[in-house]
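2024-03-11 09:14:02 INFO receiving multi-entity request
2024-03-11 09:14:02 INFO entity count = four
2024-03-11 09:14:03 INFO echoing inputs for audit
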Amino acid sequence: MIKTAVVGYGYWGPNLVRNFAESGRTTVVGVSDLREDRLVAAQRRFPGIKATNDAAELINDPNVDAVAISTPVSSHFDLAMAALKAGKHVLVEKPITSTSEQALRLMDEAAKRRLTLMVDHTFVYTGAVRKIRDLVQSNDLGDILYYDSVRVNLGLFQRDVDVIWDLAVHDLSIMNYVLDSRALAVTATGMSHVNNGPENIAYLTVFCGGNLIGHVNVNWLSPVKLRRTLIGGSRKMIVYDDMENSEKVKVYDKGITINGNPETTYQAMIGYRSGDMYAPQLEVTEALNVELRHFADCVESGATPITGGQAGLAVVQILEAATRSMRNRGQLIEINQPPMGAVA
Amino acid sequence: MIKTAVVGYGYWGPNLVRNFAESGRTTVVGVSDLREDRLVAAQRRFPGIKATNDAAELINDPNVDAVAISTPVSSHFDLAMAALKAGKHVLVEKPITSTSEQALRLMDEAAKRRLTLMVDHTFVYTGAVRKIRDLVQSNDLGDILYYDSVRVNLGLFQRDVDVIWDLAVHDLSIMNYVLDSRALAVTATGMSHVNNGPENIAYLTVFCGGNLIGHVNVNWLSPVKLRRTLIGGSRKMIVYDDMENSEKVKVYDKGITINGNPETTYQAMIGYRSGDMYAPQLEVTEALNVELRHFADCVESGATPITGGQAGLAVVQILEAATRSMRNRGQLIEINQPPMGAVA
Amino acid sequence: MIKTAVVGYGYWGPNLVRNFAESGRTTVVGVSDLREDRLVAAQRRFPGIKATNDAAELINDPNVDAVAISTPVSSHFDLAMAALKAGKHVLVEKPITSTSEQALRLMDEAAKRRLTLMVDHTFVYTGAVRKIRDLVQSNDLGDILYYDSVRVNLGLFQRDVDVIWDLAVHDLSIMNYVLDSRALAVTATGMSHVNNGPENIAYLTVFCGGNLIGHVNVNWLSPVKLRRTLIGGSRKMIVYDDMENSEKVKVYDKGITINGNPETTYQAMIGYRSGDMYAPQLEVTEALNVELRHFADCVESGATPITGGQAGLAVVQILEAATRSMRNRGQLIEINQPPMGAVA
Amino acid sequence: MIKTAVVGYGYWGPNLVRNFAESGRTTVVGVSDLREDRLVAAQRRFPGIKATNDAAELINDPNVDAVAISTPVSSHFDLAMAALKAGKHVLVEKPITSTSEQALRLMDEAAKRRLTLMVDHTFVYTGAVRKIRDLVQSNDLGDILYYDSVRVNLGLFQRDVDVIWDLAVHDLSIMNYVLDSRALAVTATGMSHVNNGPENIAYLTVFCGGNLIGHVNVNWLSPVKLRRTLIGGSRKMIVYDDMENSEKVKVYDKGITINGNPETTYQAMIGYRSGDMYAPQLEVTEALNVELRHFADCVESGATPITGGQAGLAVVQILEAATRSMRNRGQLIEINQPPMGAVA
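2024-03-11 09:21:47 INFO inference complete, emitting structure
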């Protein structure tokens, strides 16, 4: 059993504690938070767990094997670095850090010490996203032409990060996972509707090379909650709607066929295919449960997590580029990614 | 009764002929098309109407008062200019012309000859869009913060225009009409998935001044048909879903309230309001019927149409800027609009 | 070309005329209606067709091969019998007659004269219903366990027939067609909410033998329009939602499995299967077009129509029983059907 | 603080324990269940609570003020009677008992001892149902004409009760609460698709006097989960869809108007009104939390619960009649209800 500590008991922390406690692979030794009322809540819910307002106490506790960090983004780097230096395996809330440079430093430290560094890209562990990856990787969709996602709702406005860092991070982690794509350049626009607040509405285009284009629409000020992604392939296409109670993933046998005869008119050249739609049965295990078992596997075997430092870094690079582009009203920002596999 | 001729009997032409025939204010004298089979179809459906492959024959027919043009975009200017020069009132399919310079020239010619020049921005005449304009103009929504539209489906790929000119033209005409806004700058991205074909997927951001931002997502290669617009106001917000059989327009009494106390934390500063939603009853008269009666009114009274040359020009300016931006991967393009009302 | 006449130019008549005119197999010689304004409308829409207020004129016209009857139900029998006696093939609006006895007499007359007698059960000719029949007949669903249909909307209240005869007739014709089932007994309840008017809301249960049960919920006073049928099979199940723009038919690989071990508890005995769902591509040809081509085939070949007199009779027998049961607050009414195939 | 014990820790028991623990008005002293693994689960989840396989131990514990019973229906009466005789207040899972005679005996016992007897008709305490009651009671809908409910899904097949006692109980408790109606007669049909099992599909019609008709469609063997109720009023109509994430209740300003002129035709007599729809904002507190606070109020004040013995009895009377009718293929069963208010 891997003994864990959870730093930060806000919105997401209780889910981490509950799942660490019930995973069968891990136990929870302690919880820390700066707010007294959150510590009281933690102890009422999980009697017998140490609760402290001093994260360092947990990080340096020799009885702790791994530290999970679910605090505001700006504190991720310092806490994760301290935990790695104390010899702990680390799971960090998304996004992994505030800058790509910080992510690289964590990756180096973890590699040097042979510790597991993992980022909590939760959606990657859902039955829906894993099924989509299977469909894409098996070439069932043909060549992927576009990835188009909408993630909007009312609230929660953040102060320290804009809507891209809060919401688009999900879409980018999913897109990177299912497509195995590399973002080469980004352009983004957005707007703040609160004085001095960060942008609460934003639109990102991601150029991935070839004719693959990604787009993400995020908004904290929408009257309705939408979570819908279209993935267009040359053979089939997917609609992934996370608001559906069932049938979250629909696969459409639809597309165009191009008749190569240059003598025909343009419209005659293009045919439209429309076949059956099907919604595959999805695994329904809670994503966080799947994720924490994977974390335990990696800690025990030394394997690289699916959502390791590299995955965290790749997302932060796009977020950095997007925010910079947005501040310059859509200026194209190239991304210089380190070669895949250069660091683990 | 205004005697009309319809030039172009393709996809939209039959709707024009039928509505001109049944409006009670207009009659149809003749139809022209370059394709013999289309002329046969027109005559089978509307016996007694002159059918010709020579548009000039109708344009110069002294028995014709007005000419409706529903041909490919590239021919709009020449046909409309010829009709105006022949002293005919003109209704042109959207977009009004291929360039803003052409639109200005048609506007000048119509003004000089005191003829009606109208562009067929059909959606402006639907019950849904007119209701939305009422809600916006009455300040029911408060300040408008964003306009976010999705218009995607499978097909019909065009050769002579990209997806922006084919689909986004609808959203831009609606946005301009309901918001009375002025696009100041545009950035757009897109992609073609057919060799040498125009872009079939595109994303536009429109900056309208202040903190009002518009966005349009258009796609010819989507597995599902979506027609959904979110309009965010400081007081209320609208979801306009044209795929709904009824309740196309929903008004949400939702939003944020900003507590000015700078002493509180950022999150405490922002409150979320959530009240009733309502779906106003909409007028269900066919939009084209409403539009053609308005055309008849303008012809008879000399009044400026709601969708006159100015409205057509404003849309073409955004389309031009968007395509130019898209070809430069999101480069910001400023729009220098003539002052409102300078030309009719 | 089969020369047809259409008696009755109300709500449905124009669709009949248009489809007879465009089927490529039939032409329209004349239209009759008792109302002068309907005749004017017919002539404006279809110039060149004879319009008369005297149905007998068409029925006895030697130039007419077939007569389509789309008048109120109470007149179906007299008009159809007159047409058969005049040697015409007959297509009658649904339900075929007001009583099963009338239906039997029409069937006899048609058989004696070797004329085609067909009832316009339009839904049977839709791509959706034909696909459902294929799925059922191929045993893809396993044994059929239930058929549960809802058909509700606001209006149109009828005076001469109750809501069962107006709406449930559709469901019963579909159920009989896809299941090849025989209704053995019926119980129905309902209510009128208009003084002296027929029932505007009704619920029918149809016992079909074995453990197959049918149910139909019809209502003229619903705030929303619903058209949804569930068909439960021992292997798979169908949801048929006619209000869906696409994906009208969904096939669910869901059900229960019964573990025969009597030692286990009851709940352990029953397992729940949940697999993929798929929505087959449907043929989109207008149903009436398919139907009229089938009518032409039968007229020419002498074959028995899919929706011949027997199909019309079987539905009327259920309608009769249902109304009788409803007037007696759910009393069970047995149906004595003639043996299948006794009459054509 | 009211000290409670929960008898039965199966599907619903954990929700009772959690809400009793967090209500702020009650505490949980102990939990009992016959199954050892359920007791282990209870203790893991709620350390510090007594867990026993002997319900009598809790019922007779002088430290317990109130007992909540969430066991199979057949045991409700014995357990509740024992608890009342031990001087405890009682909350019983729905339906309150297996027979109306049992319900009357519990009511008598509770009245004699001045103890609170309440049945857990949970839906009555949802924001949606309370809002619907407000709308009906304020006469916003006009006269209520019908109540039409569908509650279908796949599973969970029961052995000891049929689908009416398992699912329709919800609809009947809601209907009785929002309409203040009295069922006068019932007719029901149904079918079992498992050998020797109770009916898994059923249809009930409830006659409530005047022209008010109720209907409930319940099914354990549906491929999709539906929870939808239509309530028709003479002025307005409601659609209550519990599967909606938001906007569960929609109020339609729709209906018919009857023109009294007997000279006009029947169809001219009836006009169709179609106005706005609105979805009122609903309170989102968890229903069980609202319910348990109401239970605490009643225990402390001696007031009669909204869902007291009388409400429980009224539902059981309909269930009894429905099952009897179903076994006789729809035979009408009259209900002889005791006069309202005769017993508390």
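2024-03-11 09:21:48 INFO post-check: Chain B touches chain D at residues 247, 253, 274-281 (CB under 8 Å).
2024-03-11 09:21:48 INFO post-check: Residues 339-344 of chain B have pLDDT under 50 and may be disordered.
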